[in-house]
Specification:
The chain has 120 residues and is mainly alpha-helical. The protein has 5 helices and no strands. Among the domains are: 31 residues; 48 residues. This is HTH-like domain-containing protein.
Length: 120
Amino acid sequence: MYLLPVNHSSFCSIQRAQIRRRQAKLLRIARSTVYYKPVVDEYNLKLMHLIDEKFFKTPFYGSRRMREMLRRKGYKVNRKRVQRLMRLMGIEAIYPKKSLSRPSPDHKVYPYLLRNRKAR
C-alpha cells in the first residue's frame, strides 16, 4: 500500500467546503449566502461617530440640522442617509409633542343623547 503525503490545510479546506455545501443544501439556500460576509462601511462609522458627538451636545437637532452640520464640516451626505444612521443608532431629536390625551380646559363636554335608546 502506497500513501501519498497529504497537506493537512488543504484537506481541512476541502472538508469545510463540503460542510458548507451540505448546510446550504439542507437549508435550501444559495451557497453564496453561506459565504457572504457583510462589509462595514468606514465612512458610515465616521458619520455615526460625528452624529453621536453632536447629538450629545444638541439633542434637539434632527436629521436636517445634522446634515447641515456634516456638510459644513465637509462631508457630502444627504438627509435620508442621516435619517437612516440616526434610526440605526436609535436616536431621535427631542421636541415638544402634541398632548393628545389631555383634554382642553375650554372644551365643552356634550351629553350623549342616544344613551338609553334602542336601535330599530
